[in-house]
TrEMBL record:
Major subcellular location class: cytoplasm
Family: Belongs to the COX19 family.
Biased composition (Polar residues): 1-11
Organism in which the protein naturally occurs: Solea senegalensis
GO cellular component, one term: mitochondrial intermembrane space
Protein name: CHCH domain-containing protein
Length: 95
């Protein structure tokens, strides 16, 4: 009886990340936003929950400059940081 293990029966098939790849910011278009975010992390002992505004701004910059796919901020976990519609804009819709 052979006890040799056959590892070829299961082959590993790599797959792309769910959100795709993130191109590097070669031209530094979002460098200021990244620097603010990194400074906030450092100043807050790397507690990212205290730097959510800066991270949101950084991601918005990346989306505006096509450095990542556009996503609604709600899907990225920033629903609480989005400005609610003003009462005047709601009344404009009703007229």
């Amino acid at each position: 009886m052979s006890t040799a293990m056959n590892f070829s029966s299961k082959s590993f098939k790599p797959r792309a990340p769910d959100k795709g790849s993130f191109p590097l910011d070669h031209f530094g278009e979002c460098k200021d936003f990244k620097d603010k975010f990194m400074r906030c992390l450092k100043d807050n002992s790397y507690d990212n929950s205290l730097c959510r505004v800066q991270s949101k701004d950084y991601l918005e910059c990346r989306m505006e400059h096509q450095l990542m796919a556009k996503e609604p901020l709600q899907r990225l976990g920033y629903k609480d940081l989005i400005d609610p519609p003003s009462p005047s804009s709601e009344s404009d819709k009703n007229t």
